[in-house]
C-alpha cells in the first residue's frame, strides 16, 4: 500500500469511520450488548493485540513481548457489531495492556469525561484495572460466589466481540498476521490503522463473505498488577462493578456501612438517592452519590421500607439468618 495513500486513508477517511458513537448509536449498542450478555450499560469492549515486526536495530528488549517475539501494540475499542470506535497503535510490545491504556488518549478523555460515557462503561479482560468507566471481570481467587461466576460468564459473552473483531481484521488483512519487512514503525502504524479503517468500511457494507471461521484473536491475558494504578482511581470502578452485578442478579443480603460507624435509616427517593423495588422478594436497591449501592431485605416483616446501613468503601456479605436473629439491630 503506497505510503501517501495510506496516510490519506488514516487522516482523511479514518475519522469518518473510526469515531465515538453519538447518543442514538450508544443506546443501540447498549441494547445489543445487553442481548448478548445480559449486562446493562456496555458501550464498548477494549483489548490489545500484537502486530509482529522485525527485530529493531535499537531497543530490542522494549519491543519484545511476553511471548518472545518483537511487536507493536494495537489497542482498540469495538462496538457490538465488531466495528472499531477507537484505536491506538504504536506502543512497544513489552508494555502491559494496563500501561498501554494509561498512555492512550482514551484514558485521558474518559477520566476527564470528554467522552460521553456517563453512567455507561467499557468492559475489558482481567489485564485491566477497575475504573468508573472500565469494568473487568472479577478475579477468580477461589472464593468467588455463584453470582460472581455468572457475572464473569456473561461478561465474557460480551467481551468476545473484541476478540472476534481482531480475528476478522487479521483474517481479512493477513499481512497483520506476519512479520512486516519494513522496519519503519511509523509506516507499520499507518498500515495497521488503515486496516482498521477498511475493516469498518467492510462491516458497514456487510462484506463478510470471504471471512473464514478463524475469527478470534486469542492472545494470552496478562494479569493486571494492582500497583499500576492509584487506589482512589480504582475504587469508583469497584463500586460500579458491584452495582452492575447486583442490579442484574437481583436481591442479595448485602449492606454498605459507614467507615466509622453503622448508620441506619430509610431508603428515600429523590435527589441523589434512587429506590427500585423488587416486589417478589421484598428487596430494594439504593444508589447514592457516596455509597454506590445497597440491596437489602426488610429487617422487620411489617416495615414499609427497609432500614439500611451505609459504607463508602467496601461490601459486606451478611448471612441471611442474622437479619432475623437481631444481630443487625445489635450493631445499629
TrEMBL record:
<dbReference type="Pfam" id="PF13359">
    <property type="entry name" value="DDE_Tnp_4"/>
</dbReference>
<dbReference type="GO" id="GO:0005634">
    <property type="term" value="C:nucleus"/>
</dbReference>
<feature type="domain" description="DDE Tnp4">
    <location>
        <begin position="46"/>
        <end position="200"/>
    </location>
</feature>
<keyword id="KW-0479">Metal-binding</keyword>
<dbReference type="GO" id="GO:0016787">
    <property type="term" value="F:hydrolase activity"/>
</dbReference>
<protein>
    <recommendedName>
        <fullName>DDE Tnp4 domain-containing protein</fullName>
    </recommendedName>
</protein>
<dbReference type="GO" id="GO:0004518">
    <property type="term" value="F:nuclease activity"/>
</dbReference>
<keyword id="KW-0540">Nuclease</keyword>
<keyword id="KW-0378">Hydrolase</keyword>
<dbReference type="GO" id="GO:0046872">
    <property type="term" value="F:metal ion binding"/>
</dbReference>
<comment type="similarity">
    <text>Belongs to the HARBI1 family.</text>
</comment>
<dbReference type="InterPro" id="IPR027806">
    <property type="entry name" value="HARBI1_dom"/>
</dbReference>
<dbReference type="InterPro" id="IPR045249">
    <property type="entry name" value="HARBI1-like"/>
</dbReference>
<keyword id="KW-0539">Nucleus</keyword>
Amino acid at each position: 500500500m503506497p505510503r501517501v495513500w495510506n496516510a490519506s486513508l488514516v487522516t482523511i477517511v479514518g475519522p469518518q469511520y473510526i469515531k465515538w458513537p453519538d447518543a442514538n448509536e450508544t443506546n443501540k449498542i447498549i441494547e445489543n450488548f445487553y442481548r448478548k450478555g445480559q449486562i446493562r450499560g456496555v458501550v464498548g469492549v477494549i483489548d490489545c493485540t500484537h502486530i509482529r515486526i522485525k527485530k529493531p536495530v535499537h531497543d530490542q528488549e522494549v519491543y519484545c513481548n511476553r511471548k518472545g517475539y518483537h511487536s507493536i501494540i494495537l489497542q482498540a475499542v469495538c462496538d457490538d457489531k465488531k466495528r472499531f470506535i477507537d484505536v491506538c497503535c504504536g506502543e512497544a510490545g513489552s508494555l502491559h495492556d494496563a500501561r498501554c491504556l494509561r498512555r492512550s488518549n482514551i484514558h485521558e478523555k474518559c477520566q476527564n469525561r470528554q467522552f460521553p460515557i456517563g453512567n455507561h462503561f467499557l468492559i475489558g479482560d482481567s489485564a485491566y484495572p477497575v475504573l468508573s468507566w472500565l469494568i473487568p471481570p472479577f478475579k477468580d481467587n477461589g472464593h468467588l460466589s455463584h453470582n460472581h461466576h455468572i457475572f464473569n460468564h456473561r461478561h465474557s459473552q460480551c467481551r468476545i466481540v473484541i476478540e472476534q473483531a481482531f480475528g476478522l481484521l487479521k483474517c481479512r488483512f493477513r499481512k497483520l498476521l506476519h512479520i512486516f519487512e519494513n522496519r519503519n514503525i511509523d509506516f507499520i502504524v499507518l498500515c495497521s490503522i488503515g486496516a482498521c479503517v477498511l475493516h469498518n468500511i467492510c462491516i458497514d457494507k456487510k462484506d463478510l463473505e470471504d471471512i473464514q471461521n478463524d475469527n478470534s484473536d486469542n492472545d494470552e491475558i496478562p494479569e493486571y498488577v494492582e500497583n499500576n494504578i492509584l487506589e482512589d482511581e480504582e475504587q469508583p470502578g469497584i463500586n460500579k462493578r458491584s452495582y452492575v452485578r447486583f442490579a442484574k442478579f437481583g436481591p442479595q443480603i448485602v449492606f454498605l456501612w459507614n467507615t466509622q460507624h453503622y448508620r441506619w435509616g430509610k431508603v428515600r427517593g429523590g435527589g441523589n438517592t434512587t429506590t427500585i423495588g423488587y416486589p417478589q422478594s421484598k428487596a430494594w436497591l439504593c444508589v447514592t452519590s457516596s455509597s454506590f449501592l445497597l440491596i437489602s431485605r426488610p429487617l422487620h416483616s411489617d416495615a414499609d421500607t427497609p432500614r439500611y446501613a451505609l459504607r463508602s468503601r467496601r461490601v459486606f456479605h451478611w448471612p441471611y439468618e442474622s437479619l432475623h436473629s437481631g444481630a443487625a439491630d445489635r450493631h445499629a
